[in-house]
Amino acid sequence: MDSVIRDIELWRLAAGYLFILLLIVFVKWRGLNREIRIVVSTARMTIQLVLVGYILTYIFKEPNPFLITFIVLFMLTFAIFNTYKQVGTKLSKKLKRIVALSMIVGSLVTLFYFNVVVIHFQPWYEPHYLIPIAGMIIGNSMTGITLGVKNLVDGMQKQKHLIEGALMLGATPEAATKSVVNSAFDSAILPTINNMVGMGIVFLPGMMTGQILAGIDPIIAIEYQIAILLGITGSVALTVMVFTTLGYKTFFNSKQQFKV
Amino acid sequence: MFELKDVTYKDILTIRSLHIPMGKITCFVGESGAGKSTLMKMLNIMISPDQGEIYYSGENVREIDPIHHRRRVIMLEQQPTIFEGTVRDNLNIGLVFSGKDEKPDKELLNALHLVSLQKELDEEAQTLSGGEKQRLALARVFLMDAEVYLLDEPTSALDKETEEKVMKNFFSIMKERKKTVVFISHSNELISTYGENKVTIVKHEVKDNG
After folding, report:
1. Which chain A residues in 110-169 lie under 8 Å from chain B, judged by CB atoms?
2. What is the model's pTM?
3. Helix/strand/coil (H/E/C) assignment for every residue in B40-95
């Protein structure tokens, strides 16, 4: 199918920034002190996307498996460090290692499975597929694990008394932290699960919208979207499963004493 | 039962030598913040000393699996630990934690009776008052067949009369079962009536033993 998409003329794209100006005027008028943040965010978005545009153009022209692997790993590393930053509280070295391990295992295993078995494109490094799919999988795993880490750390602090009370009676760390770990897991995957409910009714997801705009048959766009949503759910679930299964252990020392 | 030698924990506690006898009721006395709870937590391996050795039945606790140890030497904190669920759930949870089978309702009711708590097993435990929660937590440890019971002010939220009744029941059954009990209390009556062995802690230092 030929692409029917129109190129947006530069001045028209620039006109799109009008609403950012409106937003700035509004927050200034309300004294919200957010002008700089809005300007910086908009500028970052523009610069980052322009750069990515050029990089993707280069990669698509001459696909190189090493370069593409490097890009995926770079995305993953960025996501891991962004998780540390987003959580807000100081994390122990051990917990950081578990976050990194969970992200690596969760994202890469799902990415591999969906690329090889479900979407099945060749060669495996075909950047038109690999890069956007990796982006969606890694990005969503990052959001999921951030929620998981926040809730785990928060739960451990708030339930300290109950956890210690259970340990004093001879509970294993696993049994003593069961409710905290379960609620961290639940809160981490719930947004992804809920997201599936509104699909197609409340909103058309970004990837599908993009494909439809690019003139792809909606049925094909939907096939891809279903595959991607399953991939995202799988990746978030796997990442958070690895994280919660291992993460709680970092709150205990070798004497099974609770260290919060 | 317990032997402690040259134990120090931060600047909270110093113990040159301490013996806690088997099958006896020992009480820890001392002012608030003297280090009584810290000492108790060390016996339960919830914390480990910076220096010195603690022996339990001749075995160095450093060599013992802490979870296995805590199932023999259980501890009850001053602020009662009440979990989500009913009174029944809360009574059974100690057994569940220590890998044992839950008890039939008859035994649970018996434990409630022992601590003078007239509550239905299906009642939500979170709705109980402070004193009731404390008694529920005590009934829970009573159901666990441990070797040593460490009780940190188990009846601090009760009135004198109830405290006397509950502890009298508890101690007499523990004596019958030949269990070792260590308790912390500010009640002189409890200490003088039931304490067979007294450990005084003054300004972070264990003073005497006997």
Report:
1. 161-162, 164-169
2. 0.88
3. HHHHCCCCCCCEEEEEECCEEHHHCCHHHHHHHEEEECCCCCCCCCEHHHHHHHHH
